[in-house]
Design a protein that fits this description.
This protein is of the alpha+beta class. It has 16 helices and 23 strands. It has 4 domains: 66 residues, Arc Repressor Mutant, subunit A; 39 residues, no CATH class; 177 residues, Periplasmic binding protein-like II (D-Maltodextrin-Binding Protein, domain 2); 197 residues, Dipeptide-binding Protein, domain 3. The radius of gyration is 30 Å and the shape is globular.
Amino acid sequence: MALIDKFNVLYRRFGDAPAQPGLEQLADLLHCSERYARIQLTKMRELGWIDWQPGIGRGKRSTLRLVTSPEQIEWLRLRDLVAKGQLEAAFAHLTSPQRNRLLADLSSHLGVVGKEVRIAIPTLPATLDPRRIKNRIESYLVRQIYDRLVDYDEINQRITGALAHHFETNAQATAWTFWLRPGVTFHTGERLDASIVAQSLLRLKEPPGHYAGLFQSLDRVEVLSSEVLTCHLTHTDWLWPHKLATATASITLPSSRHGRPIGSGPFQMEQQSKQRIVLRAFDRYYGTRALIEKVEFWSLPESPDPVTDITFDPGAATQQTDVQNGCTYLIVSTRSQLIPVGERQAILGLLSNALPPANNAERTPALSIIPGWESPRSLRQNSPPDITGTLKIYSYDLPCFTTLFARLQQVLTAAGIRAEHIILGSEAFLRPEEWLSEADLIMGSEILYHRSAYDIYEWLHSSKLLSAGMTKTEHERLHDRLAQIRTDPHEQSRQEKCKALADWLITEGILLPLSHERVGYTANHRLHGTGLAGYGWVDLARIWIKNNELSVS
């Protein structure tokens, strides 16, 4: 019988009331000899479970008081497992109340622990297959595990080499040749070569990839040697290397070879469960090795900080935030029975009065789709539409949407219009074909990894929500304009075309930018290298733990 089981026997017999049982009685209860009972009682006392004083002298009874309960002992055991990072063992076989209590306690075990960092995220990713990713936490983690042929240098606004150390194209931008770095290996030790890269690139066209439509122009990949390959496209595409710098285009091994994510990035997957993901630095990484040994992502459904998205160490932390590259926005569904297409400008013009104040700590008003841009508004702001029914405004379960809806509702109520907020789970929201016929207005949010023309192009090209707010003619015009961006070899003029496209979307009443949400993180003061990176988060490979005891005073 384990020690905790013996304690449970005593608790059932005596509870937390003081008692004076003899050693013989205690031995009978525990089904053991008096000598062994004494040993077990001494251990319980050392653990702080009981207050026990053995009787001294003939006829003197021992005194016993149980100072804790089986529930509290189990709770301390669970907290000890969590402190050691053994979440799977801690969550095994829990009742619902125990699970909820443990989830609420997890944040106290986050942050810097020895030589590792534990990071809270609202939910663990549904997939780490680069072709299937749909949201930014999936994209963020994919970027840690995998690498790509090229990267985007946001400071200099140009594509730079990654797995490929050099690339070039023909005059028509229909053939792009890449020279691979020699000696690059995957986490399994398998060498990366042009044949593997070619297979990975061709898989980008296959369904059900969320961004598969962006890669349909890839006609074939010609392998010229083990370290050189050429992508042949069906039409001019100066954005092709930008597409290959995205998380979706990460180079992977064929999925049939391994049951876990295998890449060549700075971190390799060590463990994945329903409670956490554990990443460990890849020692043979071709670039600069990660400065931190291990990073764990823990699932906390209730985020400890409503402003930041990644929280390293709540309570003893400094905070860094920035406004999102992108915006939250409102779209009128073309299937709405209450808002005809001809009334879109009127309703969005009215709701442009619901933008958040400029001094808000969590968001800033959006004057266009990108921070710093300003687009003309609808010309019909002073003519509210005549709506007799209740508008149904759909969104997913992002906290900012509740706040934004309250502002929208205030404006609508003042105009004599009723509104209902319908909140879907994020997975259901990404399947608009299931609910679009019921929606009048849709709130969405887009955060771009970079503020490049390509990131804007990718959003407008692939957004199902944007398509839901456009007529067939408008959709055709959108893709004509996107084609002009794709065939432009100059980043500056691509940016100008993107700005003109945003102006058109807004003035036509297709899209109303609402806010730029603040994104970022809180980080323990011992963590360094935590400058804001893509999505307003951090580059994990650059962070490191400073031992302040070794610092010069």
